[in-house]
Request: fold
Amino acid sequence: QVQLVESGGGLVQPGGSLRLSCAASGIIFSVAAMGWYRQAPGKQRELVALISSGGSTNYVDSVKGRFTISRDNAKTTMYLQMNSLKPEDTAVYYCNVNRLGVLSVNYWGQGTQVTVSS
Reply:
């Protein structure tokens, strides 16, 4: 059974930092292509960042230079380091697995709330 469990969300002031974690089980983590998505109230879910099984990364323009996606295959965990947070970063953040090797999949975590407010 595939499980993706996000953690690390919370309330932070503008300019602050948070690190999200996504702990995965039930998959061969080392061959997983993964990403972080977010959904703000009243808006569609949007891609934030992607990381391939080999560690290549891509970011949406709005977070470039502020967010860093990474993975630790030994801990089967993906991270999102978020710095210089802005109120518009407020959203529920979701972990996603979209590929396992050559196999296309679509696994989601339950989400973690990030609120940026003074």
Summary: The mean pLDDT is 97. The chain is about 0% helix and 55% strand. The radius of gyration is 14 Å. The longest strand covers residues 91-100.
